[in-house]
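Q: How do we represent a protein-ligand complex in a form that can be generated token by token?
A: Start from the inputs.
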Amino acid sequence: MINKFTYQPKQFDLSGLSGISDKTLEMHFKLYEGYVKETNKLTEKISEFLQDGKIDQEEVPAYSELTRRLGFEYNGMVLHEYYFGNMKRQGSVDPDKNSTFFKLAEDSFGSYDIWKADFVSVGKMRGVGWAICYQNPANGALSNHWISLHETGNIAGFVPALVMDVWEHAFILDYAPADRPKYIEAFFSNIDWAAVEKRLQVNTVSRPATA
Ligand SMILES: [Fe+2]
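Then emit the structure tokens for the protein with fe (ii) ion bound:
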């Protein structure tokens, strides 16, 4: 075994959330653990190919396929950790008006309400994926993004601040597929804004100088 970095599933104490049942969470934790397992397995299989220090011609197809899956499995693991990590029992729907996140949302979108309308609309988009509010560490700006599956649409170097899983498995035991908006409302009632705040790397938005 060459790689010393084997991942262990993290534990999250989230029972008793509002509108997201313990049964859903139990199933979701199992799915998350699957991503941790697959990430470790992929890394190990790739390291086996590399044991002789090179990729032989006949190994290229299998090696390429495994390597292409890295983004899917790694992001599946990491995004779930962000998602579970930004919820808590008795969370609050909106951040404090004096919080850094609130001010950055105003600076980036004109108002917090516009930021929220955008984030919720991203979450309602058709398809399988995630809604993520990122912070650009270069200037502090917040922006909301749609991520297809786990890996398509993540912005390199941007910091995930608020992460919402909108795969159907995140809510199908509690809501019908067409009721995704109800799940999004439930998600907002469980947000741990202190956890979101801790992820921010820049406290202000630096704007380009105006002429
Ligand atoms: Fe998920």
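The longest strand covers residues 129-135. Residues 28, 31, 80, 165, 167, 169-170 surround fe (ii) ion (CB under 6 Å).
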